[in-house]
């Protein structure tokens, strides 16, 4: 492993989607002293707005990034299959209790596996992902128990783990509300203006999908104007 520079915690891979959670996670990892390498996954999703946002965020943060293109050919998700509608105006009481059609089967499992391979290849010993289990849309792969299980799989299934240098999976936002995340990111100088959260890829956010609702609620509760809406 390469020698760490003074004040550095070494290399880290940050899964960067282009949304506010992953952007906050990137800036938090940088603030903690990690040399961050961003992994951007383009998986034939409904639109490319979030991919472009992720590239801008990585560039603004001064971090190198790798963009990997892949495809989930089995469809079945509103984010990968245009024949499946994106749910709109869901009541807040249902968001964390029902798995919506925007769930992409095994997406985080695939993404984390790729991040583990990337990390091992570049000698990184930490993976950061902006998963959240408080203000979220009910996805099963956002729960703390899932990440604990995947952590064990990475330890058992990689050379780094077998050699006693396991790759850690960090989920620093997992138990935070959206408003807490936004307050943290505001202190860290996260460029929320260039983040993209909406499930639709139009010129402006739809304001009606789950992701738009949670983002709006977070900014309102944080008492911070959303710069992406104001710009």
User: Please, what is the CATH homologous superfamily?
Assistant: HUPs
Largest sheet: 5 strands, parallel
- Percent range of helical residues: 25-40%
Topology, number of strands: 5
Classify the beta-strand content into a percent band.
5-15%
The assigned structural class equals alpha/beta
Spans where pLDDT lies below 50 across 5 or more residues = 1-6
CATH architecture: 3-Layer(aba) Sandwich
CATH topology: Rossmann fold
Shape: globular
What is the typical, i.e. mean, pLDDT? Answer: 92
Radius of gyration: 17 Å
* Total discrete domains: 1
Task: Walk me through what this model shows.
- By secondary structure, the protein is an alpha/beta fold.
- It has one domain: Rossmann fold (3-Layer(aba) Sandwich).
- Helix content is 39%, strand content 11%.
- It contains 9 helices and 5 strands; from the N terminus they run βαβαβααβααβααα.
- The chain has helices at residues 20-31, 49-61, 92-95, 107-122, 144-157, 159-162, 178-188, 210-222, 227-230, and strands spanning 10-15, 34-42, 65-69, 126-128, 168-170.
- Strands 3-2-1-4-5 form a 5-stranded parallel beta sheet, with helices on both faces.
- β1, α1 and β2 (34-42) form a beta-alpha-beta unit.
- α1 (20-31) crosses α7 (178-188) and α7 (178-188) crosses α8 (210-222).
- The chain is globular and about 50 Å long.
- It starts with 9 loop residues before the first strand and ends with a helix.
- Residues 1-6 have low confidence and may be disordered.
